[in-house]
Design goal:
8-stranded parallel β-barrel, 357 residues, alpha/beta, globular, 2 domains, 14 helices, TIM Barrel, two-stranded antiparallel ribbon
């Protein structure tokens, strides 16, 4: 049995006080210019108070044009630093590691949100996104790197590079979406080039004591499970990152592609040789028994989404009670507000049937 309350030391030296990470959750409650709002500050600070060893922000865009949703927290300009400094100070006061997720939505940016055509590795008719020029690809790389440098200056323990869920770095990784014919398209080595260039430079510029993770998802958006495993192993072998965050949608499921159905998604990744790199998984880990099941499977720490929305102190509840089950859905708006969610976050959750009463 792995103790959910035991500490974890990352290769960079950062110490996590327990095995709980707050998932980077879209919530639409910051200001439209990318500034941190009081609502967002309250939501994240309450999770640190509730015992999460690592608190991760929502996806934060590294370019204004990369905004993925209304009310998104930005990290694309020094003008936004003040909010980040306030946030990191409060999270670290509670003994949590403060991590920001670096993001660019690419073709998933709603055109109405940025008043211009969204961008993509190559022209995409379905989303009316235009392909980036080579100079723009290099600018995108630099803006991810600069966002990490900015995050370090603002006091973040580290960053997670968002390479999952069909956003721009996934779009580069996907052979279905990426039709480029230069160094950033074609083979998986070329399609993953941008991601590796970003991560390598962040490590170089931010130093060996900066916490650095990468989020990947092995399915949907043209992702191939074996290719994603290849990327993971290459990161591990290079020794540049501290952790891999694998978003599986459901940690207990069988892959949807028939050729990979000889084992669960979790087992596919468990078979990698992680060496010193730590790993976490997200997807339907909702109660204390499931937390224990994931840790006992050899995963280093758990990433909690829905149950973290329902209980700001989910880690404390699980540590105190090995059979803890969260409150049943649907829950009232008043309940969610008491748990630290602002009005816009609560409205956002209403798009899921039977979540909010």
């Amino acid at each position: 049995m792995t103790n959910a309350n035991s500490t974890l030391t990352f290769p960079c030296g950062a110490l996590m006080k327990n095995k709980f990470m707050l998932a980077p959750l879209t919530n639409e409650q910051s200001h439209e210019n990318g500034q941190l709002s009081e609502e967002e500050l309250r939501w994240l600070t309450m999770r640190a108070e509730g015992g999460f060893g690592l608190v991760m922000t929502c996806a934060s865009h590294v370019q204004e044009v990369g905004k993925g949703f209304s009310g998104q927290l930005g990290i694309f300009s020094d003008a936004l630093n003040e909010g980040h400094i306030t946030l990191t100070t409060k999270l670290k006061e509670q003994g949590s590691l403060a991590v920001i997720q670096l993001h660019h939505a690419g073709m998933r940016t709603p055109e109405a949100l940025i008043n211009k055509q969204p961008v993509c590795p190559s022209n995409n008719e379905k989303t009316n996104a235009r392909g980036l020029s080579l100079a723009e690809v290099k600018q995108l790389r630099d803006d991810f790197i600069n966002a990490a440098i900015r995050a370090k200056k603002c006091g973040y323990t580290g960053v997670e590079v968002h390479g999952a869920h069909g956003y721009i770095l996934t779009q580069f990784l996907s052979s279905e979406i990426n039709k480029r014919t230069d160094d950033y398209g074609g083979s998986i080595a070329n399609r993953s080039r941008l991601l590796f260039e970003i991560v390598d430079a962040i490590r170089e510029k931010c130093g060996k004591h900066f916490l650095l993770g990468v989020r990947l998802s092995p399915e949907r958006f043209g992702m191939d499970l074996e290719e994603v495993k290849w990327i993971c192993q290459r990161f591990i072998d290079a020794g540049t990152i501290d952790f891999l965050d694998l978003s599986l949608w459901d940690c207990f499921k069988i892959p949807h592609e028939e050729k990979y159905q000889n084992m669960t998604l979790l087992e596919h990744f468990k078979n990698l040789d992680f060496k010193k790199v730590k790993w976490t998984v997200a997807g339907k880990i909702t109660n204390a028994v499931e937390v224990q099941k994931i840790l006992d499977a050899g995963v280093d720490f758990v990433t909690i989404g829905t149950s973290a929305i329902l209980h700001h102190d989910f880690p404390k509840q699980v540590i105190a009670n090995p059979t803890f089950n969260p409150i049943a859905l649907p829950v009232s708006e008043g309940y969610l507000n008491k748990e630290g969610l602002g009005e816009k976050f609560i409205t956002y959750l209403k798009r899921w049937p039977d979540f909010v009463k």
